User: Fold Cellulose synthase from Taxus chinensis.
Amino acid sequence: MVMAASSSGNTMEREIPWKERVEGWKTSVRHGHLPRAESYNSGSSFRHKPDFINDQTSGELSQPLSLKISVGGIKIHSYRIFIVIRLILVGLFFHMRITEPVKDAYGLWFAAVICEILLGVSWILDQLPKWSPVNRKTYLDRLSSRYEKEGEDYCGLANVDFFVSTEDPMTEPPLMTSNAILSVLAVDYPAEKVSCYVSDDGSAMVTFECLSETAEFARRWVPFCKEFNIEPRAPEAYFSQKIDYLKEKVKPSFIKKRRQMKREYEEFKVGMNALVAKRQKAPEDGWMMQDGRPWPGNNPRNHPAMIQVFLGRTGSLDIRGKELPLLVYVSREKKPGDELFYGYAPAPVIENPSQSWWPWLWKFSKKRDRENPDTVSPENPDTISPEILRAPADTESFEYEYESETTHLLGPVKSLEKTLGQSPVFIISTLMEDGGIPDTTDAASLIKEAIHVITCTYEEDSQWGKEIGWIYGSVTDHVVTGLKLHARGWRSIYCVPSSPAFKGIGPMNLADSLRQLLHWALGSMEILLSKHCPLWYSLRSAKLEWLQRIAYINMVVYPLASIPLIAYCFLPAVCLLTGKFIISP
Assistant:
């Protein structure tokens, strides 16, 4: 099923034609001058700079976007001395325990020593990555001067995708998801450069309806945030603040508009809660849409692919007549027996009538709100870079030919199908300088390709989940993906703004906490027992630094620490029952 907003089919003009892009790739492959991954992910630049930057002589343009600041001498040295002292004491303790066995309780003593050593190793693995901490200072105000030129429409800022995933509206309140989406749509970033995809793994009709209400409320909330520089930009978090909201607000219209917006948000909350209450129990025949047809996602385990464009380049404008970021509802196709990879398949790269495949993508939880509206840059740890989404550098040379009027790339399509999947339009979009689609592609074919990309079998016979995109094989696939990125030479740059970039909620009860811990532990064990285990993965490559490897090892082996911990808890009881002790008198 396809549910798509109307489109005029307008396509943004691009500075570098896609044919020249392919010519450049072909020449680079032929002469072996492919750029290294680091050049795309520098801490001081984006992947692509507009040509006009090269002509600038201003000192401000040469300044970096971020700087690495070492932790102060007294602070770091005191911390290291404390760690060394503890390490010496632990070593002396182990020496005493090993050299003074308990002969009349050798079994208990041996079990205790093994548990203590394992727990000690776990502590060391946790401390080593913290040996050389660094801070980073970011200069977001330099982005505009570097990537935008006064008097020109061209903007060199990178395009950004936000990917919000949700599944069960009963356990994940739609109001919480809506607040996360609203905080994304209101970020301080060019609207035409921002896209928000909502992935509904539960194919719930209430999620779809609530998203429709959210899109309508966003038309009023987004301009309110940007007009008065509201922070935080999730309405629930903003209106629940216990602060003087009149402080530093000089516009006389602010008080009136704030009261009006708060009233509208309360009405929005009432409507959302009413929708959820109405959809608590599904009827026997399933949910019906307004046009009388059955909801395609009535069976969450067997339903077609669904797409709906709510906001976007050709969709609704805000109340001031300005453009809003793209907002798309996506529910992947599911069939019995098919292996599903919730949320992280090619869904974020869907083609639609207004845009396609952005260079930077954020994995975004429905339980987190964007607290700082300025932190939208490739230097954030939650982003996935374009290089892992593109074809590997050793892909066979691009042999292509142009069709006279359709401007399709035949060669790259054929050579990249085994890598990117069998979607010609998507493959061509990866060859565009900043993503995008050929100008001659019509909306109907884009919708068809979008449905094809989000089918449950699209990854078959391709490199999706293996070398491209989020890597499958673990419920904590973000860890595997990060490991592969670092093993390929990518660097992580942690964006630390003055105010928190994100704020969210954790588990509210013991059952949820245990469920979350079990989820993480199972994911770590899956990685530990897989070919991506950091103990041996990419050992021949020098790109993964040894402290990074230790950090990943600690991340995947920490669940094993529960075994010696539990055993050590039982040892005192055994000692009391047997009258023997694990320590010599």
Q: What stands out?
A: Residues 72-132+545-585 form one domain. Strands lie at 66-70, 134-138, 160-166, 194-200, 306-311, 326-331, 360-365, 368-370, 383-384, 502-504. The longest helix spans residues 73-99.
